[in-house]
Amino acid sequence: MDSKADIICLGLPSWEGDYLKSTVQLLSEMTNFYDVLYVEYTYTWIDVIRGFLGKNTAPINRILGKEDRLRIINLENGNSINVLTLPPIIPINWISNKVIYKYLLKLNSKIIEKSIKKVTQKLKFTNPIFINAFQPNFGLNLKKKFNEKLTIYYCYDEISEAQWCKKHGAWTEFEFMKIVDAVVVSSKALLEKKKKIQTNTFLVKNGVDVGIFSDKKDINKPKTIIGYIGTIDDRIDIELVKSLIKNMPEYKFLFVGRVMDKTVESCLNILPNVEFTGAKQPEELGIEMKKIDIGLIPFKKNEFTKNIYPLKINEYLASGMPVVSTDFADLTDFEGLIYKSTDNKSFEEMLKMAIIEKDQLLVDARIGFAQLNSWKNRAVELTHIIDELTEK
């Protein structure tokens, strides 16, 4: 691999935000090996209108070009990354008619292509690696537009089960995967599924920012706070969690993260031993993690969750704390490190076992495991995949 080759990544999330994002974490560490242009969330005109009305935090001036759309972010690893905010595009996910959708998708893709080309010329990116991170619809029209040596699709969720994009996500992803050079997925379930479409499919699991979550737990400290850190949405088994909270009134249940499903909060927040903190900036999560004695992953078992490799599991383990989880996905990587339940009754039993646990060797093993799964190591894995592909 040439030193400091170029990567363009068209990502789904915005760079900043009040939660940790796998794409942002991974691309930050890829700056150790590449010059990186991260093209963030494709804001639509609806985002602009909502921003003017004060209903979201979209960077309106940057979207509209009143501020420089390209900015340089200095990272904690000592590197920097170029981040591009695109001009607003037409909102089209709601459109059912495939012909109309395809036509407007081409228009939107042209806007994206023009903006990226303008910046890559300025940055002197000549023969980049193009990573499409969960934006397969745009990928269909952007392939080979930037003289890229490789096009890689980064898939970290099952798009056909994602409510916000399932209308067009499944067919666009299927078509896109057939024309890319490789697919990189984040879980074993996704690997098995996507490899049937694209034989060049590789596994790079989610990692952890060890620096944020490395406050080691004291096994002699009484465990009184049971916590969940992450997005609060329809993945959470409300009935399971409600039962735990009611049956264990002497413990506090702390939920840290942005609330995407208000039903979860409204059902649980009426109970006296529950607290929702709301969204936190990534750098604040370590402070919240210090408060928690046991980490929960109370996910439902369904077609969406079975494809997940949860970010939070290594975040919990980085401090050595016990983790209690449903068996929503293939969690064999964590065998012997976490408490895994098969039903609601066993979940409560596992939780009570975690409360009385006092095993320093197990705490150390969890921390060591999480350190192996750092985002820096995940970036090395992806770099090796890219090397392998470019040498073919």
Secondary-structure blueprint:
Layout: E1 5-10, H1 22-30, E2 34-39, H2 45-52, H3 60-63, E3 70-74, E4 80-84, H4 98-123, E5 129-133, H5 136-142, E6 150-155, H6 166-177, E7 182-185, H7 188-194, E8 201-203, E9 225-229, H8 238-247, E10 252-256, H9 262-268, E11 274-278, H10 285-291, E12 294-297, H11 311-317, E13 323-326, E14 339-341, H12 344-356, H13 360-372, H14 375-390
Parallel strand pairs: 1-2, 1-5, 2-4, 5-6, 6-7, 7-8, 9-10, 9-12, 10-11, 12-13, 13-14
Antiparallel strand pairs: 3-4
Structural overview:
Pfam families: Glyco_trans_1_4 (PF13692). There is one protein chain. The chain is an alpha/beta fold and 392 residues long. 37% of the residues lie in helices and 17% in strands. It folds into 2 domains: 5-207 and 374-390, Glycogen Phosphorylase B (Rossmann fold), CATH 3.40.50; 225-371, Rossmann fold, CATH 3.40.50. The chain contains 14 helices and 14 strands. α1 crosses α14. The longest helix has 26 residues, at 98-123. The chain is globular, with a radius of gyration of 21 Å.
| Molecular shape | globular
Number of strands: 14
CATH superfamily of the largest domain: Glycogen Phosphorylase B
* H/E series: EHEHHEEHEHEHEHEEHEHEHEHEEHHH
CATH topology of the largest domain: Rossmann fold
Task: Please give the count of helices.
Answer: 14
Order of strands in the sheet with the most strands?
A: 3-4-2-1-5-6-7-8
> Which whole number gives the mean pLDDT?
94
In what range is the share of β-strand residues? 15-25%
CATH architecture designation of the largest domain: 3-Layer(aba) Sandwich
The number of domains: 2
Structural class determined from secondary elements: alpha/beta
Please identify the top-level CATH class of the largest domain. Answer: Alpha Beta
**How does the major sheet shape up?**
8 strands, mixed
- How many angstroms does the end-to-end distance come to? 12 Å
How helical, in percent, are the residues? Answer: 25-40%
Unreliable stretches = none
What's the Cα radius of gyration? 21 Å
